[in-house]
From TrEMBL:
Keyword check for Magnesium: no
Provenance organism: Clostridium cellulovorans (strain ATCC 35296 / DSM 3052 / OCM 3 / 743B)
Record keyword Hydrolase present: no
Pfam families for the chain: ABC_membrane, ABC_tran
Keyword list, A-Z: ATP-binding, Membrane, Nucleotide-binding, Transmembrane, Transmembrane helix
Every ABC transmembrane type-1 domain range: 61-330
PANTHER family: ATP-BINDING CASSETTE SUB-FAMILY B MEMBER 10, MITOCHONDRIAL, ATP-DEPENDENT PERMEASE MDL1, MITOCHONDRIAL
Residue ranges annotated for the ABC transporter domain, each copy included: 363-598
Domain of life: Bacteria
Membrane topology: Multi-pass membrane protein
PROSITE patterns: ABC_TM1F, ABC_TRANSPORTER_1, ABC_TRANSPORTER_2
Protein name: ABC transporter related
Length: 600
């Protein structure tokens, strides 16, 4: 992949740009946001509605056919049999056409819904790639997973309900009322009396359902976070015999979810039962009212059945709306939840910034201050130093001194609160960071591997390496012995987090990944701190090959591992306490000497 392509890989497509703009424009109007999601699909949805009307028409015609047949059977006129046959044929044709028209309707609306589902998830994934590292440090991964999977699914469910159930309900009510008003204004006015009751029930319960559903969603997000943490901690839990405590902790969380869910179920149950009783009462009254009109010969017996059928249909549709309210509330709440991510402005903005085609690897800190958002005191104050191209500099000091913060400032994960960080005399704030990062490689303390082959883990983000070059990299990373010992070699599958490999093996794969990038700046964040001495020796050999002719920034707690660094910088009290090579600092008997003595 060309570097220019790499820097543009997070650009949004037209559909995703439209989707984001819709969220921005309608951020205070959830329903408008939902409707706006389908911009570009309106024609498809229009024809879907047309075919829905056609396929559903038999439901509306059936009461009329039933009325005609009953009237023909009771009147027993000369053409009674002919009327019955014609009506039976008409309804049979209308029922059979449901199959092809339902298929077309489903294809049209399903394509639109699945397209939006894909665009939403795609936009969320891209936004997560753009959001700052500080955001990701604060936001638990379980919540993000819940938004991408569960919330988008809820929006998809709501959309499906709109284009199937709600559309059916609206059409059934409109058609039923239209036929009734055409047949009898008196009966129509009776039907209208049910509407205020439905509105009153909805108004009374809507607020509580929305609030309880919001509480339940948040508790589900928290549960998702706890479950992920529990799974990650299983080896630690098992090693310390803490299964009961961990189970109890999860049980407490599940109890909280159950309580929130129970509140939601109860309010929905009240809602459904009260509405059902109200409309059943109206239906019974309707039966008596139309029966009275038939006795007075204002309407026929067949029309009593027809009106009763239509009224039962209207009651069922209104009850359906009421039953759907919780689903609607969940879907709209999920629209807001997804919007929290898509509208977040804590992003790494690289637009219109200078793209870097090549670097020499010079790094300069000039009066740099850095302070975390939730901290009252700065981590770094007036920090100034320079690293020459190709130089290896190691940062040492106590935990919390700011060593990893310096690395994050060089990577561009953090921006200095004050002062400047220069890369080849360019202020990092003015650089297009993806283009710059294509020239760096990071080897973290804990190697991050994904569930795929060793080959794919090494070549991550690169596709232009020949087999010959890859073999050289494997040798340089001390992986040759491991690869040869595996039945499938480079094509051996790695388990989740690389659990079927040792810590040293995982780290050497991480180093091989860095080799593949052929970086000008190499960042090693305590790359050997969690390893045994044998693994550490192999890693050190790999690192010595990797750092050659590269600007290298190393953070290390084991001071013996940085003896060959060109310079060692001791970080403490917010700044640079001393700097020099290993022998100079040992002779000086300052802060580095004290740290070294503590490890002897």
């Amino acid at each position: 992949m060309e570097k220019s392509e790499q820097t543009e890989k997070y650009k949004l497509g037209p559909s995703e740009e439209a989707l984001l703009e819709n969220f921005r424009r309608n951020k205070n109007h959830t329903l408008k946001t939902l409707i706006g999601l389908y911009k570009g699909h309106y024609l498809k949805l229009f024809f879907s509605v047309v075919f829905f009307i056609i396929k559903h028409s038999s439901v509306w015609v059936l009461p009329i056919v039933t009325s005609n047949i009953i009237n023909a059977a009771t009147n027993r006129g000369e053409n009674a049999v002919k009327v019955i046959i014609i009506n039976v044929i008409v309804i049979l044709v209308m029922v059979i056409q449901n199959v092809p028209t339902n298929y077309i309707h489903t294809v049209l609306y399903a394509k639109a819904i699945r397209s939006i589902e894909r665009d939403l998830r795609s936009s969320l994934v891209r936004k997560l790639q753009q959001l700052s590292i500080a955001y990701h440090n604060e936001m638990q991964s379980g919540r993000l997973q819940s938004k991408i999977m569960r919330d988008v699914e809820q929006i998809e469910n709501l959309s499906a309900q709109i284009f199937i159930t709600i559309l059916s309900i609206m059409l059934n009510i409109v058609v039923a009322l239209s036929i009734v008003i055409f047949k009898s204004l008196t009966v129509f006015l009776f039907f209208l009396a049910t509407i205020p009751v439905a509105v009153l029930i909805i108004v009374v319960f809507r607020g509580k359902i929305k609030r309880y559903n919001s509480d339940y969603r948040k508790e589900m997000e928290e549960t998702s976070v706890r479950v992920m943490e529990m799974v990650e901690l299983i080896p630690v839990t098992r090693a310390h015999g803490l299964e009961k405590q961990e189970t109890k902790k999860m049980d407490n969380q599940l109890i909280n979810v159950a309580k929130k869910g129970l509140k939601l179920d109860i309010i929905q149950s009240y809602f459904s039962s009260i509405s059902w009783v109200a409309f059943q009462v109206f239906q019974i009254i309707c039966l008596g009212f139309t029966g009275y009109l038939a006795v007075k010969e204002y309407i026929t017996v067949g029309e009593v059945v027809m009106y009763q059928t239509y009224f039962a249909s209207i009651v069922a549709q209104v009850s359906g709306v009421i039953t759907l309210l919780p689903t609607i509330a969940k879907g709209l709440e999920s629209v807001n939840s997804v919007g929290d991510i898509l509208l977040c402005d804590d992003i790494e903005n690289n637009r219109k910034k200078k793209k870097i085609k090549s670097i020499t690897g010079e790094v300069t800190f000039k009066n740099v201050n850095f302070q975390y958002k939730d901290s009252e005191t700065p981590v770094l104050q007036n920090l100034s130093f320079s690293i020459r191209p190709g130089e290896t500099i190691a940062f040492v000091g106590p935990s919390g001194a700011g060593k990893s913060t310096i690395l994050n400032l060089v990577i561009g994960f953090f921006q200095a609160s004050a002062g400047q960080v220069f890369i080849d005399s360019e202020d990092i704030k003015d650089i297009n960071l993806p283009s710059y990062r294509s020239h760096i490689a990071v080897v973290p303390q804990n190697a991050i591997l994904f569930s795929d082959t060793i080959r794919e883990n090494i070549l991550y983000g690169t596709d232009d390496i020949s087999e010959e070059e890859l073999d050289k990299i494997i040798k340089a990373a001390n992986l040759e012995e491991l690869i040869e010992s595996l039945p499938e070699g480079l094509d051996t599958k790695i388990n989740e987090h690389g659990s079927n490999l040792s810590g040293g093996q995982r780290q050497r794969i991480s180093i091989a990944r860095a080799f593949v990038r052929n970086p000008k700046i190499l960042i090693l964040d305590e790359a050997t701190s969690a390893l045994d001495s044998i693994s550490e020796k192999k890693i050190q050999e790999s690192i010595e090959r990797l750092v050659k002719d590269r600007t290298t920034l190393v953070v290390a707690h084991r001071l013996s591992t940085i003896r060959n660094a060109d310079r060692i910088a001791v970080i403490g009290n917010g700044g640079l306490q001393e700097i020099g090579n290993y022998d100079e600092l040992m002779e000086k008997k300052g802060e580095f000497y004290k740290l070294k003595k503590l490890q002897m």
